[in-house]
Amino acid sequence: MPESSDIIFEERYNDILDFLVIGDWGFQGKGVGRKHGNQKNVAFVMKKWAERYNSQFIINVGDSFYKSENDDHQGVDSIYDDKWKTAWLDVYKGRLAEIPWYSVAGNHDWYNNVYAEIEYSLNVNSRFFMPSLFYVRTNIISGKKPTKVAWIHIDTNLFFYTYDMIQNDQMKNNFNILGWNNDIEVDNKLRWIEQQLIEQQDADWILVAGHHPLIGACVSFNYMPRLVELFERYGVSAYFAGHAHVLEYQTPKPDSPVAYFTSGAASRTSDGCSGKDWGMPEGTFGFLHATIIENEMTFSFVNATTTKDKIVYQSKLTARSTWRPK
Fold first, then answer.
1. Is 325 part of a structural domain of the chain?
2. I want to staple 317 with a disulfide (CB 3.0 to 4.6 A). Which of 251, 297, 312, 326 is the partner?
3. Taking residues 2-28, what's their average pLDDT?
4. Quick one: which H or E segment has residue 109?
5. Beta strands in the chain (DSSP E)
6. How many structural domains are present in the chain?
7. Which residues are CB-neighbours of 35 under 8 A, at least 6 positions away?
8. Residue at 326 is within a domain
9. Is position 178 within any domain?
């Protein structure tokens, strides 16, 4: 199974970068009191936003496929699994069906054949972009002031869970296949992340996407604090995650300049992380929209519990190059 890619995937855009962030979107069961289920409501609103702003891609922070009914299975079985059609292709239409989904794996993806998601990306449909469990992309935005955005996509399952605490047999088997059953592998992957951060220090923006949140009390799980240490040491601009089925945000601080986003409410809802700066209550479905123009990122959390969307939180970030000169 490809664990990390040596290739840096470079993309070029004109003047502006516009994207959506969703996670935990692959639950197809009916929402409480909702005739059509909340996944489709969120997809409907996302389509409107993607077409309104001509979004260029989606950041998928994992848990792409769930067990939605009693006779269903977690994740996907293979590249031929019906869920590729029923949970993804048939749900996300219009602009959402034209742009790439830059993806990482969540724990529910690991509960089955996580390699099938990589194989699907490499051999069936590269729009579901996950060439390996860890990979790096760069966005070069042309304009009056050319801007570089570096994306580091990571698999946080290795950091959130210790091998001994994993109760799902298939996830444990997948960890065994990769040799992810000892602290040495944790250290190896942290060194890989650190090396990518070092190599991308010339970027105006360094953005990291993973599955598990780093907001408030959620930071404390096992090896997750070591990610925070790396992000702060190397000036990461923002970290995007899901896992908690909520919309939440932790603002940059003088001693911790990283912005932390949780957008894990695309098909399920739950409690979030205690100690957050802002968050919507359980029962809220939605996603995150963001736009980068040179040294400024504007972002909006969108409540899509019904098809009548509403912005529930909006703010701005400044590029790391303004507070951490090259």
1. no
2. 297
3. 95
4. helix 107-110
5. 4-14, 17-22, 57-60, 101-103, 128-129, 134-142, 147-153, 205-209, 238-241, 247-250, 259-263, 278-279, 286-293, 296-303, 310-318
6. 1
7. none
8. no
9. yes
CATH code where residue 15 lies: 3.60.21.10
**Chain segment 245-291, per-residue pLDDT in tens:** 999 999 999 888 999 999 999 999 988 999 999 999 988 999 999 99
Which pair of tokens denotes residue 302?
């969108």
86 token code pair = 């029923």
User: Letter for the amino acid at 299?
Assistant: F
What is the C-alpha separation between 20 and 287, in angstroms, rounded?
7
Task: Examine the pLDDT at 34 and tell me if it is beyond 70.
Answer: no
Between CA 271 and CA 245 the distance in angstroms is 7
Nearest-angstrom CA–CA distance, 104 and 242: 11
The residue type at 238: A
Q: E strands within 23-165?
A: 57-60, 101-103, 128-129, 134-142, 147-153
Parallel, antiparallel, or unpaired for β 259-263 and 238-241?
parallel
**Strand pairing report for 4-14 and 134-142:** parallel
Asked, for residue 160, whether it belongs to a domain, the answer is yes
**Is it the case that residue 157 has pLDDT exceeding 50?**
yes
Domain that holds residue 126: 4-318
Contact assessment for residue 211 and residue 243, using Cβ atoms and an 8 Å cutoff = yes
Distance of alpha carbon 245 from the chain centroid: 12
Residue 49 scores a pLDDT above 80: yes
313 and 301 in contact (C-beta within 8 Å)? Answer: yes
Average pLDDT taken over every residue of the chain: 94
Total-model pTM: 0.96
| Residue 326 in this model has a pLDDT that exceeds 70 | no
Per-residue model confidence as pLDDT tens digits over 165-175: 999 999 999 99
| Integer Cα distance of 68 and 301 in angstroms | 26
Distance CA 103, CA 135 (A): 10
Q: Is the pLDDT of residue 185 over 90?
A: yes
Contact present, 257 and 319 (Cβ < 8 Å): no
